[in-house]
Amino acid sequence: xxxxxxxxxxxxxxxxxxxxxxxxxxxxxxxxxxxxxxxxxxxxxxxxxxxxxxxxxxxxxxxxxxxxxxxxxxxxxxxxxxxxxxxxxxxxxxxxxxxxxxxxxxxxxxxxxxxxxxxxxxxxxxxxxxxxxxx
Amino acid sequence: xxxxxxxxxxxxxxxxxxxxxxxxxxxxxxxxxxxxxxxxxxxxxxxxxxxxxxxxxxxxxxxxxxxxxxxxxxxxxxxxxxxxxxxxxxxxxxxxxxxxxxxxxxxxxxxxxxxxxxxxxxxxxxxxxxxxxxx
Lengths: 135, 135
Fold this sequence. Notes:
Two copies of one chain form a homodimer. By secondary structure, chain A is mainly β. Chain A has two helices and nine strands, in the order βββαββββββα. The interface between A and B is large, with 44 and 43 residues. Strand 8 of chain A pairs antiparallel with strand 6 of chain B.
């Protein structure tokens, strides 16, 4: 047993977090965590990332309901990457409707081939609410 | 089939590359690739990373002989992360002597617990050659 400090500074406050299905071993996605998202992930038992595009914490599954329940949290030798083994609520983690974000295989000619079946229809899961009309 | 451009620019020229054992599904490590290391990985069929600390391409297993043979290369929905399914030559990928770099579990109290057995003795694998005496 040893105490560990995650090295958030190496990459400007963020570490990559690999999300793996704890039963199948399939890699589902990769996100980034800052110190606050790791703390809240540990506290709540559900995965939160730091969204680089939105520049804020975001709970995975916030809009889709497809949350990721933490089953095990692992850290690598240099303490600058995380492996989060999860139980995924819902049919998939990818906003394009696939179980895993890694649904494309890179072929030798540089093209990408979709090798998975769609698990859900993103347009129904991520349907935007109509904006409230202002009076 | 679609053409794909890996988005190296989002993170300053580098994308995270998850290394997964193609048979067991175990996640072995995470490294970073730039455009040149991905090209050379594809050309040679063995994994090369861009070493952030050394600021250059580095073939995984260069000194240990524990190279990673590419079995499948996958790309995520945003084309900014790679999943490399490999066959690992040698007993482990970690410079600390473990099969996987993720040999520690993060406990609820913030400590890290080693949950794997050492697969090899790093001091014999990474033994430095004696510097050649100059005349």
